[in-house]
């Protein structure tokens, strides 16, 4: 079976428990960082997330996978638009590698943080011409997050039979994204903050 068509493997019960505990720890620590006043360390969070993304993709290219903590943290990082957009560029440049990378993330990510990964997997399938797979993947995302904008955009493209090549020629480079978006700003963290609140609750647990 093609990797693009594979559902994310389910971890064993013991591993699933470990993943839940680790996700809770990482989410609590990240929520603490976002609550730093007067301003959270946006540049550090964006820079660290981009480095994690590149390290994870490189691991896939070498036939390995990153550890659970890195995978779960990257799933959270992808809620920051600048990091998600770089992942989108990577899907365009190398959909096969990114399909495998995203599968490795999906098998360790709870639904609260799965929307970017699921949508990127759908985009990878779209780029590979696997339209039914893309449609199923994006429908799964919208069932969890009905207003997730990137999933809505892909759904519209699929319904209108837009070929991926039409979007690819308009995609900016990473340097162009940096030029347009400018330096990291606190607003970039809003989607991540909402996802953490959904997962932890308004007064979620904090790390000790």
Question: How would you describe this protein?
Answer:
By secondary structure, this protein is an all-alpha fold. The chain has a single domain, classed as Tetratricopeptide repeat domain (Serine Threonine Protein Phosphatase 5, Tetratricopeptide repeat). Helix content is 67%, strand content 0%. The protein contains eleven helices and no strands. The protein has helices at 13-34, 42-61, 68-77, 81-93, 95-106, 115-127, 131-144, 149-159, 164-168, 174-181, 190-200. α1 packs across α3 and α6 (115-127) runs antiparallel to α7 (131-144). The radius of gyration is 17 Å and the shape is globular. The model has no long low-confidence stretch (mean pLDDT 90).
Describe the structure concisely.
The protein is mostly helical and 208 residues long. It has helices spanning 13-34, 42-61, 68-77, 81-93, 95-106, 115-127, 131-144, 149-159, 164-168, 174-181, 190-200.
Q: What keyword list fits this structure?
A:
single chain; 208 residues; mainly alpha; Serine Threonine Protein Phosphatase 5, Tetratricopeptide repeat; 67% helix
Strand content: under 5%
- The percent range for helix content is 55-70%
Query: What is the CATH topology classification name?
Result: Serine Threonine Protein Phosphatase 5, Tetratricopeptide repeat
Number of helices: 11
- Weakly predicted, low-confidence segments: none
Helix-strand category = mainly alpha
CATH architecture: Alpha Horseshoe
Q: What is the general shape? A: globular
Mind summarizing the main beta sheet? none
Query: From the structure provided, what is the oligomeric state, counting identical versus distinct chains?
Result: single chain
